[in-house]
Amino acid sequence: MLTAATLGMTGYGLYSLGTALADLLGPSQLAWIANLIAIVLGAILVAAAVLVRLGLPGGLALALTALFGLQSLSLHSAARLYGQVAPEPQIARALFGALLVGLAYFGTVESEVESDGQDDTADAR
User: Fold this and answer.
1) CA 35, 91, 103 angle in degrees (round to 5)?
2) Residue 105 carries which DSSP code?
3) What range defines the domain where residue 92 resides?
Protein backbone atom coordinates (compact mmCIF):
# COMPACT_ATOMS: atom_id res chain seq x y z
CA MET A 1 0.00 0.00 0.00
CA LEU A 2 2.80 2.38 0.82
CA THR A 3 4.41 1.84 -2.57
CA ALA A 4 1.13 2.50 -4.38
CA ALA A 5 0.62 5.71 -2.39
CA THR A 6 4.17 6.83 -3.12
CA LEU A 7 3.84 6.17 -6.84
CA GLY A 8 0.44 7.87 -6.96
CA MET A 9 1.67 10.96 -5.14
CA THR A 10 4.79 11.14 -7.28
CA GLY A 11 2.80 10.75 -10.48
CA TYR A 12 0.25 13.36 -9.44
CA GLY A 13 2.99 15.77 -8.38
CA LEU A 14 4.91 15.31 -11.63
CA TYR A 15 1.69 15.70 -13.64
CA SER A 16 0.88 18.97 -11.87
CA LEU A 17 4.44 20.18 -12.29
CA GLY A 18 4.52 19.25 -15.99
CA THR A 19 1.18 20.79 -16.91
CA ALA A 20 2.05 24.01 -15.08
CA LEU A 21 5.44 24.20 -16.83
CA ALA A 22 3.80 23.57 -20.20
CA ASP A 23 1.25 26.32 -19.54
CA LEU A 24 3.91 28.70 -18.25
CA LEU A 25 6.31 28.19 -21.16
CA GLY A 26 3.71 27.64 -23.88
CA PRO A 27 0.54 29.49 -24.75
CA SER A 28 -0.56 30.62 -21.29
CA GLN A 29 -4.15 30.12 -20.26
CA LEU A 30 -3.65 30.96 -16.58
CA ALA A 31 -1.80 33.74 -14.81
CA TRP A 32 1.90 33.13 -14.27
CA ILE A 33 1.48 33.15 -10.50
CA ALA A 34 -1.08 30.31 -10.65
CA ASN A 35 1.35 28.27 -12.75
CA LEU A 36 4.20 29.04 -10.39
CA ILE A 37 2.11 27.92 -7.41
CA ALA A 38 1.20 24.70 -9.24
CA ILE A 39 4.89 24.03 -9.90
CA VAL A 40 5.77 24.57 -6.25
CA LEU A 41 2.88 22.42 -4.99
CA GLY A 42 3.77 19.64 -7.44
CA ALA A 43 7.38 19.69 -6.26
CA ILE A 44 6.23 19.64 -2.63
CA LEU A 45 4.01 16.63 -3.34
CA VAL A 46 6.91 14.75 -4.96
CA ALA A 47 9.14 15.53 -1.97
CA ALA A 48 6.37 14.53 0.43
CA ALA A 49 5.97 11.22 -1.41
CA VAL A 50 9.63 10.46 -0.72
CA LEU A 51 9.19 11.38 2.95
CA VAL A 52 6.08 9.20 3.21
CA ARG A 53 7.94 6.26 1.67
CA LEU A 54 10.82 6.69 4.11
CA GLY A 55 8.36 6.88 7.00
CA LEU A 56 9.65 10.20 8.28
CA PRO A 57 7.41 12.19 10.62
CA GLY A 58 5.50 14.96 8.91
CA GLY A 59 5.66 13.41 5.45
CA LEU A 60 1.97 12.58 5.37
CA ALA A 61 1.03 16.04 6.68
CA LEU A 62 3.16 17.66 3.97
CA ALA A 63 1.53 15.48 1.31
CA LEU A 64 -1.92 16.39 2.60
CA THR A 65 -1.00 20.08 2.50
CA ALA A 66 0.17 19.82 -1.11
CA LEU A 67 -2.96 17.87 -2.09
CA PHE A 68 -5.20 20.52 -0.48
CA GLY A 69 -3.26 23.24 -2.27
CA LEU A 70 -3.58 21.51 -5.63
CA GLN A 71 -7.32 21.02 -5.01
CA SER A 72 -7.86 24.70 -4.27
CA LEU A 73 -5.76 25.70 -7.26
CA SER A 74 -7.87 23.40 -9.43
CA LEU A 75 -11.01 25.19 -8.22
CA HIS A 76 -9.40 28.53 -9.05
CA SER A 77 -8.29 27.35 -12.49
CA ALA A 78 -11.71 25.93 -13.39
CA ALA A 79 -13.42 29.17 -12.40
CA ARG A 80 -10.94 31.25 -14.41
CA LEU A 81 -10.90 29.08 -17.53
CA TYR A 82 -14.52 28.02 -17.80
CA GLY A 83 -16.42 30.59 -15.77
CA GLN A 84 -17.95 27.87 -13.61
CA VAL A 85 -16.86 24.94 -11.50
CA ALA A 86 -18.09 21.51 -12.57
CA PRO A 87 -18.41 19.34 -9.44
CA GLU A 88 -17.54 15.98 -11.03
CA PRO A 89 -13.83 16.61 -11.77
CA GLN A 90 -13.38 18.29 -8.39
CA ILE A 91 -14.98 15.38 -6.56
CA ALA A 92 -12.86 12.90 -8.53
CA ARG A 93 -9.69 14.84 -7.67
CA ALA A 94 -10.66 14.97 -3.99
CA LEU A 95 -11.43 11.25 -3.90
CA PHE A 96 -8.10 10.47 -5.57
CA GLY A 97 -6.30 12.58 -2.97
CA ALA A 98 -8.20 10.87 -0.15
CA LEU A 99 -7.30 7.47 -1.62
CA LEU A 100 -3.60 8.41 -1.74
CA VAL A 101 -3.61 9.68 1.84
CA GLY A 102 -5.51 6.59 3.03
CA LEU A 103 -3.09 4.25 1.28
CA ALA A 104 -0.12 6.10 2.76
CA TYR A 105 -1.59 6.12 6.27
CA PHE A 106 -2.59 2.47 6.35
CA GLY A 107 0.65 1.46 4.61
CA THR A 108 2.64 3.24 7.30
CA VAL A 109 0.60 1.67 10.08
CA GLU A 110 1.01 -1.76 8.47
CA SER A 111 4.79 -1.38 8.15
CA GLU A 112 5.03 -0.27 11.81
CA VAL A 113 3.08 -3.32 12.92
CA GLU A 114 5.34 -5.60 10.87
CA SER A 115 8.48 -3.99 12.28
CA ASP A 116 7.15 -4.33 15.83
CA GLY A 117 6.46 -8.01 15.20
CA GLN A 118 9.99 -8.55 13.92
CA ASP A 119 11.47 -6.93 17.01
CA ASP A 120 9.51 -9.30 19.25
CA THR A 121 10.81 -12.38 17.45
CA ALA A 122 14.40 -11.10 17.70
CA ASP A 123 14.00 -10.64 21.47
CA ALA A 124 12.66 -14.18 21.89
CA ARG A 125 15.88 -15.67 20.53
Assistant:
1) 90
2) H
3) 2-124
The one-digit pLDDT tens for each residue of the chain (125 residues) are: 889 999 999 999 999 999 999 999 998 888 999 999 999 999 999 999 999 999 888 999 999 999 999 999 999 999 988 889 899 999 999 999 999 999 999 988 888 788 777 755 555 55
CA distances from 94 to 16, 69, 89 (A): 15, 11, 9
- Specify the amino acid at residue 85: V
Cα–Cα distance between 96 and 102 in angstroms, integer? 10
- The reported pTM is 0.85
DSSP 33-93: HHHHHHHHHHHHHHHHHHHHHHT-TTHHHHHHHHHHHHHHHHHHHHHHHHSS--HHHHHHH
Structural domain total, the chain:
1
Task: Give the number of other CB atoms < 10 A from CB of residue 86.
Answer: 9
